[in-house]
Amino acid sequence: MPVTALLMDGIYMSRVAIVQESSIVLNRDKTIDKAVLLIQEAALSGADLVVFPEAFISGYPAWIWRLRPGMDWGTSEALHGLLLESSVNIESGDLAPLCVAAKANRVTVVCGLNERDNERSRATLYNTVVVISEEGKLVNRHRKLMPTNPERMVWGFGDGSSLKVVESPAGRLSTLLCWENYMPLARYTLYAQGVEIYIAPTYDSGDAWLGTMQHIAREGRCWVISCGVVLEHRDLPDDFPDKDNLYPDSDEWINPGDSVVVAPGGEIIAGPSEKRKAYSTPR
Which CATH number is 220's domain given? Predict the structure, then answer.
């Protein structure tokens, strides 16, 4: 059942829902519908802040770690085409349902997504995380600065203009995605702005990653929330290209999640939540 934790600053207490749930893989509209239901459920539990994993809409492209360079061209093209088709165009209003849900439920929402550029190439994808205020407004859009290894076959590079700390009822918060948390100057930029709740949506997991989250909490003297991607074989659609070759084990946990909450001194107070699907609500 849900892992529980409590964020406290003096006498102020915040309730945070950490959503460790799978996307409706490669289906933007159904994933957004699922996110809206999860926001509603979290709000009913009293959450002030709802955090989704990296690339939740409409799924982290986990296949890039299994494709054979220079060999799986057909599969790669098919999967990238589906990812492009199911990506989010913010300017066209694709995020409107999340904004409406945030406002209706009076919660701040942090959500990772595959974003399609609508200004220049109109074909570049970005690994993006957005912050939506309790008033339903998009208050920050951060594109991953440096995609990791084969991620560069999928996503373009972000820039430092979105390294911002924003006010929320839960506290001053900001985000870095997955391995950009290993970039000391990016972290420092957030520390220098007085970040209180440091959010790290990620595909990573395991002891090394958890140790990094503890280090950041100690270094920045801030709360750290890591929301991990959880993905099973059964989450992949039946028509997923080359599914049997890429994922032959029908019982496989492709990624275990490992979501965690770390207090400013480095103590893990919730999680890690491994190989299970649930949103975690601090009490």
Answer: 3.60.110.10
